[in-house]
Amino acid sequence: MRTPSLTPIIKAIIVINIIVFVVQSINPQYDRMIVSLFGLHYFTSEQFFPTQLVTYMFVHSSIGHIFGNMLGLFFLGPILEMHWGEKRFLIFYLVTGIGAGVLYMGLKYYDFSTLEAMTKAYILNPDLTQFKVLLSKFYSEGIPSSVFGMLEDTNKVTLNESVFIVQESLKAVLNTPMIGASGAVFGIMAGFGLLFPNTELMLLFFPFPIKAKYFVTFYALYEIYAGLNKMPGDNVAHFAHIGGMIIAFILIKIWGTKRDSFY
Q1: Alpha-carbon gap, residue 53 to 247, rounded angstroms
Q2: Per-residue DSSP letter, 210
Q3: Nearest CA to 14 among 96, 93, 91, 103?
Q4: Bridge partner list, 178
Q5: Could you give the angle at which helices 8-26 and 86-124 cross, rounded to 10 degrees?
Q6: What is the DSSP letter of 209?
Q7: What average pLDDT does the segment 13-25 reach?
Q8: Are 241 and 182 contacting, i.e. CB atoms less than 8 angstroms apart?
Q9: Can you give the C-alpha Rg of the chain in angstroms?
């Protein structure tokens, strides 16, 4: 598949992402501020703002993170923009990204609402035995590092300290944002596979041509597997990726695949 030259919307999206990342890279303080303000926080977090459903797509955590997302945009985005036109492509990009964030928060609702309920119950009736149960159930990898650093003696926790720990740990979990354009990029990937299923792709890590429909199907199955079988230390929002693909599928089914049905 020959990659077309950059189209206007793709170029603008890539430029915005790069500018934001450069500002993040100036110093750690800027990075923390941008991630805190523009990253997508869970809706019960004190740091949540509805605008984050859009802004989180333009914030990244590392060179590898932004490079992978922008590479996907660069190769697949222009073809969809040329096919649909600038306006519809921009709608598609934003809606799949927003949908990915909404689905991710929806899937987190059970875990987080249960954690919130158990934390509130513990604060009302603290008990060190129940404290250990709560930690093992929700913090199997250890309490958040930001909370760990507040403790004077981590080997011996008093009842009052246990209340402080569960309060601050819940706050740290709810205030941990999701960032990155991956949801929208996976939406573009799914859209490309649906509209051009038999187009052969040459991938950097796979030296043989593969049809788009097989590539997208394989990637979707991998994301479902990785999301259901989270490995320790895996901080990738796999179900946000699936969310972007699901929204892409719904949009394309609503719009239809005929070019003259677009504006």
Answers
A1: 14
A2: E
A3: 93
A4: 40
A5: 40
A6: E
A7: 97
A8: yes
A9: 21
Cα–Cα distance list, 204 to 9, 75, 146, 231, 254 (Å): 24, 12, 38, 25, 33
Q: What would the two tokens of residue 252 be? A: 């394309």
pLDDT in tens, 106-120: 988 888 898 999 999
The C-alpha atoms of residue 59 and residue 135 are separated, in whole angstroms, by 31
How far is the C-alpha of 120 from the C-alpha of 123, rounded, in Å?
A: 5
Instruction: Report residue 139's pLDDT band, with 50, 70 and 90 as the boundaries.
Output: confident
Rounded to two decimals, the pTM is 0.86
Summarised one tens digit per residue, pLDDT across range 153-204 is: 556 778 888 898 899 899 988 999 999 999 999 999 999 999 999 888 876 6
What does DSSP assign to residue 200?
E
Torsion over CA: 185, 190, 192, 195 (sign): negative
Instruction: With beta carbons less than 8 A apart as the criterion, state whether 157 and 165 touch.
Output: yes
**Domains of the chain by range and CATH?**
8-105+180-261 (1.20.1540.10), 109-174 (no CATH)
Show contacts of 33-39: CB within 8 Å, 24+ apart. 34/59, 35/59, 35/61, 35/177, 35/179, 36/177, 38/179, 39/177, 39/178, 39/179
Percent of the chain scoring above 90 in pLDDT? 54
**Contact status, residue 148 vs residue 126, Cβ threshold 8 Å:** no
